[in-house]
Amino acid sequence: MSTLERAFRDKVVWITGASSGIGEALAVALARVGARLVLSARRHEELERVSRACAPARSVDVVPLDLGDVDSLVGKAEDVLAKLGSVDVMIHCGGVSQRARVIDTDIGVDERIMRVNYLGTVALTKALLPSMVARRRGHFVVVSSLVGKFGSPLRSSYAASKHALHGFFDSLRAEVHDEGIRVTIVCPGFVKTNVSINALTGDGSPQGKMDRATGRGMEPAACAAIILRAAAAEREERYVGGAERFAVYVKRIAPTVFSRFVRRAAVT
Fold first, then answer.
1. Which residues are 182's β-sheet partners?
2. CA 99, 167, 260: angle at the middle one, nearest 5?
3. Nearest-angstrom CA–CA distance, 114 and 111
4. Is the dihedral of CA 195, 200, 206, 207 positive or negative?
5. What are phi and psi of 132, to 5 degrees?
6. Which of 26, 43, 156, 257 pairs as cysteine with 224 (C-beta 3.0–4.6 A)?
């Protein structure tokens, strides 16, 4: 039995953002190692497509949801727990990015990004946490971003939402470690998904185009494989990508050098 089979076989794994990109790749990979899947995103039809791509999975439940509709998420979690009994691994992969300068971004866009990326994720976590504590086991896998470790032009609200996730889940990890709950935060760099196409501009409309760096990024399946290995090993944090990963260390060791670099970096 492989390491991933030992970690995930027969486990109930709930994935948000499962309708495309990294979330879809995670679902397909987990189906191969025998996980029982719960797939969530806003687009029901796309979730059904991913569900079919996961065949012959042990079981796949499709649970459409909108992370921005924070008040609905407790009910979604209650429904999943009532049907399946427990959630062993919650993979938070849903979110929306941004491509606009601060001065051009309407405050409503900031609010939307924080609700989807941060508050929705937190609400779903809080809805599941008591059941995990009662069983004294569970694992939250949070797909953040390298800009959860540093800021980048045109991504102020996105970076803020990812920084917020790090603060919340680092705190949660410390609180529940002795109760058997684990937290893994994964920070991808450039991955070839629709993240830049769907990214919100200053007025809230999608950018509608692929960024050059994103188009040349890592394949989602390769990113998913690294995420699952990190989760199986119960890593606390993992950076994923190419040379862009080293920006985390440059920011830490030589912040002035990093500031000069990021001002000149091609960010679209």
1. 139
2. 50
3. 5
4. negative
5. -70, -45
6. 26
Residues 148-170 have a mean pLDDT of 97
pLDDT range class, residue 58, cuts 50, 70, 90:
confident
State how far the alpha carbon of 220 is from the alpha carbons of 25, 190, 224, 255, 257, in Å: 6, 10, 6, 30, 31
Q: What is the Cα–Cα distance from 198 to 110, expressed in whole angstroms?
A: 15
CATH of domain 3-243: 3.40.50.720
**Residue 267 pLDDT > 80, yes or no?**
no
Per-residue model confidence (pLDDT) at position 257: 95
Q: How confident is the model at residue 190 (pLDDT cuts 50, 70, 90)?
A: very high
Q: Could you tell me the two tokens for 4?
A: 């991933």
Q: CA-CA distance, 232 to 2, in Å (whole number)?
A: 11
Q: Are 97 and 21 in contact (CB under 8 A)?
A: no
More confident residue, 30 or 56: 30
The residue ranges of every structural domain in the chain are 3-243
Question: Catalytic residues, which ones?
Answer: 158
The sign of the CA dihedral 131, 142, 7, 84 is positive
Local structure of residue 33 (DSSP, 8 states)? T
Mean pLDDT calculated for residue range 17-31:
98
What confidence tens digit (pLDDT) does each residue in 192-207 have?
999 999 999 999 999 9
Which residues lie below 8 Å from residue 165, measured CB to CB, with a gap of 6+?
A: 92, 117, 118, 121, 142, 144, 148, 185
pLDDT (average), residues 212-227: 95
C-alpha span between 146 and 190 (Å, rounded): 9
d(CA 68, CA 111): 10
